[in-house]
């Protein structure tokens, strides 16, 4: 009986993940077509995803709960991309930082419309706001640790306060990538990489002892 129960739970979890992926694809398509998240109804989203309305509500209380879960997944992806920058030793040159920034931009760009929905919804949906705040807080914590360690090693400028600088860089990336990458072509994406590289290099690494 225990084996049967585990298989049933595993099957439900697998179906839930499959439906979540379908809903993500459908939502991103609708947002890319110009709809705002507020305008997207559960009925039309479920139909676009090929998921029944009843199945949607089996998994999610409302579309805000769906967005909260999608937010967690996407921010985790961005966190992993960001660790390519701050999770390793400080870059030895602007070119090395540019390569790391390219990974962050390449990860964010296909999710730019979804992140816009998250930013908009966080202003009025407490569940989305709490998830977004908690997850972006992880960026600040890890970048702070990167700055602190680099200052001790002499690879990061010592005249920048670690915590406040990490907060500012996180806010800059959140808003800057949102504005520069929604509907961006390749040239705009390259501009985002260059801007990110210049700001971070000059803030943290240029003239480090």
TrEMBL record:
It comes from the Bacteria. Signal peptide: none annotated. Pfam families: EthR_C, TetR_N. PROSITE patterns: HTH_TETR_2 (PS50977). Keywords: DNA-binding, Transcription, Transcription regulation. Residues 41-60 bind DNA. InterPro entries: EthR_C, Homeodomain-like_sf, HTH-type_TetR-like_transc_reg, HTH_TetR, Tet_transcr_reg_TetR-rel_C_sf. PANTHER family: HTH-TYPE TRANSCRIPTIONAL REGULATOR BETI, HTH-TYPE TRANSCRIPTIONAL REGULATOR RUTR. This is TetR/AcrR family transcriptional regulator.
């Amino acid at each position: 009986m225990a084996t049967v129960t585990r298989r049933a739970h595993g099957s439900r979890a697998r179906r839930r993940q499959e439906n979540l992926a379908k809903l993500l694809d459908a939502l991103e398509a609708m947002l890319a077509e110009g709809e705002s998240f507020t305008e997207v109804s559960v009925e039309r989203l479920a139909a676009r995803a090929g998921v029944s309305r009843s199945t949607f509500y089996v998994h999610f209380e409302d579309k805000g709960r769906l967005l909260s879960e999608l937010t967690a997944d996407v921010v985790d992806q961005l966190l992993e991309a960001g660790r390519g920058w701050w999770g390793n030793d400080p870059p030895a040159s602007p070119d090395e930082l540019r390569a790391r920034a390219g990974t962050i931009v390449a990860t964010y760009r296909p999710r730019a419309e979804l992140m816009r929905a998250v930013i908009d919804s966080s202003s009025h949906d407490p569940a989305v706001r709490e998830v977004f705040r908690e997850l972006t807080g992880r960026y600040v914590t890890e970048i702070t640790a990167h700055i602190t360690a680099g200052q001790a090693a002499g690879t990061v400028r010592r005249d920048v306060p670690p915590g406040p600088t990490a907060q500012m860089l996180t806010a800059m990336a959140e808003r800057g990538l949102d504005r520069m990458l929604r509907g961006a072509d390749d040239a705009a994406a390259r501009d985002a990489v260059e801007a990110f590289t210049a700001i971070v290099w000059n803030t943290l690494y240029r003239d480090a002892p």
